[in-house]
Structure formats: C-alpha cells, structure tokens
Amino acid sequence: MPYRIAAVDGVEVSGRELTAERLPLAAGGRYDLAFTMPAGPVLLTAGGRPMLALGHGEPRRAPAGPPLDITRYATGSAVPPASFARQETWVLDRLLALRDGLPQLSHTVDGRVWPRVPPLVVRRGEWVRLTLVNRSGDHHPMHPHGHHVLVLSRDGAPAGPLWMDSFDVAPGEVWVVALRAGNPGVWLFHCHELLHAAQGMTAHLAYEGYGSPYAIGDAHGNHPE
User: Fold this and answer.
1) 132 or 224, which is more confident?
2) CA dist 146 to 12, 68, 120, 185, 214, Å?
3) Distance between CA atoms of residues 28 and 24, nearest Å
4) Which has the closest alpha carbon to 26: 163, 119, 165?
5) Peptide bond into 115 cis (omega under 30)
6) Residue among 101, 128, 138 at smallest CA distance from 189
7) DSSP per-residue letters across 109-150
8) φ, ψ (nearest 5 deg) of residue 33
C-alpha cells in the first residue's frame, strides 16, 4: 500500500511516497505513517510478523523491499546554526573496562563507562555539534532525554531536514548531529539498547547552573540505566 512518513519522533516531515521499502527503526524511535485506506485490507508487519491489520478480508503479503535511509527521506532544507558553542566527539566501542570493581567487557564512550563518562555540559540557548563514531560491532540507538537533535550527516552524506530523539548509529557509522540546549536540567544521554546502557554506555547532558539533590552509584542504590 503506498504510504508516506508523516512524522519522525513526533516531528513532522515531508517526503516522497513509499511502496515496498522497509523502515529500520531505532530502539525507542517512532514513525507516523499516513496513507489513503483502499477498498481492501492493509497489513503492517515487523520483522516478518503481522503487527496490525486494517479492513476486512485476508491481506496480501507484499515482498519486502530495500531498507529506507531515513536521513535521506525528508525534503526541504533545515537551517543549521551558523556557529556552535562547542564541538564534541564520542567514540562508541566494545572494550574491557572496570565495572563494579572488575574488568569486564563493556560498552564504552571514549573508552570509559558510566559513571566515569564525563557529562556533556551545556549552557541554555547554545548549540553543540556532536560527532558519534561507532567502532563496535553493535548498533547503538542513541537517545538524549528531553531533547531532539538535528541530524547533519551520516557517514559524510548530508541529511535532509530531520529531527530525532533516537538515532541508530550502526557499526562503523559516523553521525554528526546538532543539539540545541533548550530544556534545562540534568538529563540522561545513553544507548537505548538498555543492556548496553547498563554495561556502561550511559552519559549525562548537564546544564550549567542546574543540579540534582540525588546521588548516583551503588552506595545510594541509584542506577540511571
């Protein structure tokens, strides 16, 4: 059934009509799909399994097409900031690191694991350019709580006008995103594959001048993952 993507992670997008393309979705990500209901039934499948059937009758299973590159879908142009207050790079990897006092195979950010990953510290109103490099063999759907990011490029290819709050950095990929600090507080910024977060790939997005009365760590029974 021809359809289009109306929104990504709750933000409206405009793009071409799709037919058989598969839609890879980051953990925690959302797509709003729009189509005109035909006379016959419509079937939505995920991973080859029926998820939702609309209409009466037995829906026909269509052959799966190629995966859609969501960074190339939206038309128009986004206006990135003219300058950035700071630029950061995070290297995502799978390395040995100390967790709970023991060397364990971990999911790391710049070779470190939570709570030793330095927070991304921002000031309200500024823009930060963040490059994420995935050197591991795992997918890392990165999720900054309380914020969307403007995707600037994926593997060097410019992205369409696309705001996401869960973006999947596949093995070997490099994503560049712009984050506007417009929601003050202390926020998690972690891999949304929650086992990866629990094994170290957890950081914080912290605003200058804002704090929390809560302490983290085993002694306090407070585990952000």
Assistant:
1) 132
2) 18, 26, 14, 9, 18
3) 12
4) 165
5) yes
6) 128
7) ETTB-TTSSPPEEE-TT-EEEEEEEE-SSS-EEEEETT--EE
8) -110, 140
* DSSP code of residue 2: -
The neighbour count for residue 173, using CB atoms within 10 Å, is: 15
Angle at 148 between CA 89 and CA 199, to 5 degrees: 55
List Cβ neighbours of 160 (8 Å cut-off, separation of 6 or more). Answer: 13, 15, 71, 72, 73, 74, 75, 76, 78
pLDDT digit string (tens) for 6-41?
999 999 999 999 988 999 999 999 999 999 998 889
Write the burial class of residue 196 (CB in 10 Å: 0-12 exposed, 13-18 middle, 19+ buried).
buried
* Residue 38 · residue 54 · CB < 8 Å: no
